[in-house]
Design goal:
- The protein is about 10% helix and about 65% strand.
- By secondary structure, it is mostly beta strands.
- It has an eight-stranded antiparallel barrel.
- This is Outer membrane beta-barrel protein.
- It is found in: Cell outer membrane.
Length: about 180
């Protein structure tokens, strides 16, 4: 996780240095699609003492599509595969389907901070068991950098709440991700 945070920070620093040299203005209205990859972290704990090994982090990826109404507001539909985590020999795989409202704060023609609040249908399957389902809130904070009027880069920290629980698998997942989107 520390390596991913360092990579995101370095990328943003480089983009900030380049930010004043060009005039790429992000699209202010219209449809967009995108994808991201990141690292998920789940709240797990060992059910026994001494503790069995736990693997709380996993590679995550997501796909999304949305509509930007103006430079301050957008809505998004997305699916995020939160990866697989392990407690001892047990495995859990999580996926989330979401509908979000995006509030944006443009800093200039290239950079914008954004926040998200949405509803997510969360699924978690366990080795040897059926899938469990739950509905919860999805929240996030991120930054977007416009490469030109169509392409933009994103980095985001997202929290998925009310994940299905079983035994020692907790009810929240956090994801730090980087992605790209295309405005039509």
């Amino acid at each position: 996780m520390k390596k991913l945070i360092t990579a995101v920070t370095t990328t943003l620093a480089c983009l900030t240095a380049l930010g004043g040299s060009g005039q790429a203005q992000a699209a202010e209205q219209g449809f967009y699609v995108g994808g991201d990859i990141g690292r998920s972290s789940n709240n797990l704990k060992s059910p026994t003492k001494p503790a069995v090994s736990t693997d709380k982090t996993a590679t995550s990826w997501g796909l999304y599509g949305g509509y930007q109404f103006n430079k301050y507001f957008a809505t998004e539909l997305g699916v995020t595969r939160l990866g697989s985590t392990h407690i001892g020999t047990g495995e859990s795989t999580s996926t989330s389907y979401s509908l979000d409202a995006i509030g944006r704060l443009p800093l200039n023609d290239k950079f914008a901070f954004y926040g998200r609040l949405g509803a997510a249908h969360n699924e978690r399957s366990y080795s040897g068991f059926d899938k469990n389902h739950a509905v919860g809130f999805k929240t996030g904070l991120g930054m977007e950098y416009a490469l030109d009027k169509n392409w933009a880069l994103r980095t985001e920290l997202t929290r998925f709440n009310n994940m299905p629980t079983q035994s020692t698998y907790g009810n929240a997942s956090n994801v730090l991700s980087m992605g790209v989107n295309y405005h039509f």
